[in-house]
Amino acid sequence: MSELFDAVDALVASRSALPPPAERKRLRQGHGLTLDEVAAALRVRRATVSGWEAGRTEPRPPERDAYARMLKQLSELYPADVPVPAEDTAVPEEPAVGAGPGPSVVEPTQDTVASRARAAAPPAVESARACAVPAGPAAEPGSTTPHPPTPARVSAGAPRPPAGVGPMSRRPPAGPARTTAPAVGADPRFENGPLVVVDAVEGQVLAYCVGGLVLDVPAKSLPALVEWALREARLGQPRLSGSGKDADPLLVLTEAALERYGLPVALTGEERLAGRIPEGHKVIKQLTRANWQLTKRGFGPWGRVYRPAQGSERSCVQVCIPSWDALDTRHWADAAQLAPADLARLLGLYASRVMTPRGSTAVTGLELMTALHPPTRASRPDAAGKRYSEHNPGSLGRDPVDCAPCEAPDGHPLLAGLPRFHQRTAAEVLMEEAYDWARPLTDTECLHSHLVGIDVNMAFAAGANGLTVGLGAPEHVRQPVFDAKLPGSWLVDLSHVDLSRVQVAKDTWAQLDASLLPSPFTPGGERPTGPAWYATPTVAYAVELGYDVHPVEAYVRRDNGRYLDAWYQRLRDAYLATMADLGVHADLPPQEFLAAMDGYRHRDPQLATLVSAIKATVKGGIGKLRERPRGEGWKPGQPWRALARPTWRPDIRAAVISRTRINMHRKIVKHAAFTGQYPVAVLSDCAVYACDGPSPLDFLPYRDGKPLPGGFKLGINPGLVKHEGTQSVLWGEGVREQFDAPGLNLARYIKDGTVTHTDNGE
C-alpha cells in the first residue's frame, strides 16, 4: 500500500502548481537569491533555473515539487502587491591571507523589505543560500559580450586537481599574496572574471576561473567553445574608459585542451616562423564554416576569433596558447608550466591590475594606451536625439599621421628617395635612445673595494609621467624659438654645453669633472660635435643647465597633451600593489626597504612573475610606438603593417626615452655636485658607483634619514632606486682585462657578475 501512496504523491508532485515564469523570477529576486543559489539547492544546472524563469522549459519531478514549495513560501513573503528590489548578484570578497584561493560570498545589498523577510524565511528557502556555489571575481578592465549571456554550468562532479593544487584546494597561498577583490556592484555580465584557463581531464573539459570557480564546458569543438565563452560563460571586463569598449573574453588553452579540440600541442619550426598554423588546418575550417573570422595574423599563439560587429555589439574572443610560446619566458618566467588554477590566478591578477592581455606584454602595453584614451566618443544628441561617433579629445584619433622625416626609422617610405646604402648623420635623424656608457676607473676608484649598482624603478614609466606629447601631425618650422612646453623634434647645436660648469639650482652653479660624466645628449655619452636632432626634453635640459639654445629648424606639434598620464598611473598602481603583496611597501625607511627587497622574488614566485610582466608592459608598450617591419616580404621604402596604426608614433617614444635619460643624468649631476662621486657605468636605468662598502647606503648621501634633494633616493615608487647588485672592484678590472674590453659596460653584469664574451645589450 505504501508503494501506491508513494506513486500517488509522485503523480501529484508532477503537476505541482507553479506561478508564471515572470513571477518566478520576481519572487527569487525579492528574496535576494541568485540563480546559482537556487540551482545549488535544487541540484540542477544554473541554466536550467534560468530556463524555468524564461518559460523555455518546465521543471520535472523530483525538482518540480521542491521548486514549487520554494516559490509558495516566497509568495507568502512577497505578495504580488508588495514591490521587491531588483536582482543584485553576489560579489566574491577578497579571501583572507592564508585562507586559500576559494572565494567567499558577500551578501548582496537589499532594501528593508527583503531584509525583514529574510529574517523570517523558512529553513527550506534559506537552504538555497547555504548551498550556493561561489562565483569568481569580475576584475576591473573591459570586455565585449554581445548579448546578456546565459549562465554557465558549474561543474559538480568534475574531476578535482591533485591535493594542494587548483581552485578547490584549501592550501594557503605562498607568502602574503592576495587576489584583488572586485568592488561591490561589479558588472554581472562578467561575474566569472576576465578569462578562463581551459583544460581537459579524463574526457571532461573544465574552465578554471580567476576566483577559484571551475566551470563545466559543454563545447565539443573550438567554434562551440567560442560561442560558449560569449553566450554562457559570463566572461570579460568592463571598459577602462567611458567611451571605450569592454574587453573581450580570453580563453587560455592548455595542452590537454588543444588535443581535445584538434589543435597541435606545439608548433612546427615553419609554423613558429610564420607565427600561425596553416589556413587549411581543420580547426580553422571549422571556424570558417561557423562564420567566424580571424585577423590577418591568423591563428597563432595569440589568436582573435570574431564576427563583424553589428552596431555596438561585438562578438570577439581572444585565445592564448602558452605551449605555442604565447607567454614569453623573459617576462612570464615559467607561467606556461603552471597548473590551470595557478595560471588563472596569475593572468587574472594581471588582467585586474593592468588589463586583459591582448597579446605579448608589448602589445598589451600599447592596447592599454588606446583603452584609456579611445579614439572616438559619442557626440551630443542632435535635434532628432541621435548620436554620432566623433573624435575623442586627448586621444590619438582614429587615423594614423605621418611622422617627421627625422623621426622616421631607416626603410620608412618617407626616406624612399635616399640612396640605398646612405648612412644618416645626427643632423638627419633623431637618435633618442637609452644610455649605454662606461669609462675606465680612476686611480682613486681602483682603491675602493666595491662596485655597487643602483637601478631606477619603472624608469620609462616615470619618464612618461606628466610628459606632454604630440597628439597630431607635426608642423615644420624654420628658425624657431625654443619652447620647452611644445613637444617636437629640434635641430640644434648643443656642443657648447660644458658639463664642467652647470647650473644645479636657480643662480647656483657647480664645478664638475666633465671627463667623468656622460653627455646627456647622446646615448653613448659622447659630447655632440655639431647640430643634431633632439626631442623637447633633451633641449629643455640644456637650458636647465644654464645654456642658450638656437634651433635651426623643428617639427613641432601644437595639438598636444599628457596622453600617457593615465597609462602611467594604472601601471604604477599595478606595480606598487604587487610589490606590496610581496612585502615591499612604499615609504619604507632605507634600511627596511633594502631588507624587504632582499629575496622578495622567493616569497611568491607567481607574484614575482607578475612584477616582471608589468615592467615588460611598460618597456614593450613604449617600444611598440616605433614598431619595425616584421618580415612579411617587406622591402625598404615600402610601408609596413604597423604604420597603419594611430599608435605608431616614434615621436612619443623618443620623448619618453629622452626624458628618462635626462632624469637619470639630472640625478647623476646632483649627486656629483654634492658628493664628488661619479658613475663608472650607466646602462639605461642602472648606474654603477665605486665605494668602500657593498650597500647603496655606502655612497648615497642620506642625512637624518633624508636623501639629497633631486638626487637618488631608495624606494619602490617609480623614479626611485633599488639595489641592483654588488661586485668587487677587482672583479670589474678583471673582466675588462679578461675580455680585452676597457670600455666594457659593467652595469650590464653588476647584478650577478656573470659576463659572456659578447656585449650585445639587454
What would your notes on this structure say?
With 762 residues, the chain is an alpha+beta fold. It is 30% helix and 14% strand. It contains 22 helices and 24 strands. The strands form 7 sheets. The protein has a 7-stranded mixed beta sheet. A 5-stranded antiparallel beta sheet has the order 12-22-23-13-24. α13 packs across α20 (605-624). The termini are far apart.
Helix content: 25-40%
Oligomer: single chain
Summarize model confidence as the mean pLDDT.
Answer: 85
Strand order of the largest sheet: 5-4-3-6-9-8-7
Count every beta strand, where a strand is a DSSP E run of 2 or more residues: 24
Between the first and last Cα atoms, what is the distance in angstroms?
A: 86 Å
Spell out the blueprint of helices and strands.
Layout: H1 2-13, H2 21-30, H3 35-42, H4 46-54, H5 63-77, E1 91-93, E2 104-106, H6 112-119, H7 123-130, E3 195-201, E4 204-209, E5 214-216, H8 222-231, E6 250-253, H9 255-260, H10 269-274, H11 282-289, E7 293-294, E8 302-310, E9 313-320, H12 329-332, H13 340-353, H14 361-372, E10 376-378, E11 389-391, E12 436-438, H15 443-446, E13 450-456, H16 459-464, E14 469-470, E15 475-478, E16 488-493, E17 501-505, E18 508-511, E19 531-535, H17 536-544, E20 553-556, E21 560-561, H18 565-581, H19 590-597, H20 605-624, H21 650-675, E22 681-683, E23 686-691, E24 721-728, H22 729-738
Parallel strand pairs: 3-6, 6-9
Antiparallel strand pairs: 1-2, 3-4, 4-5, 7-8, 8-9, 10-11, 12-22, 13-23, 13-24, 14-21, 15-20, 16-19, 16-20, 17-18, 22-23
Helix pairs in contact: 3-4, 3-7, 13-20, 14-20, 17-21, 18-20
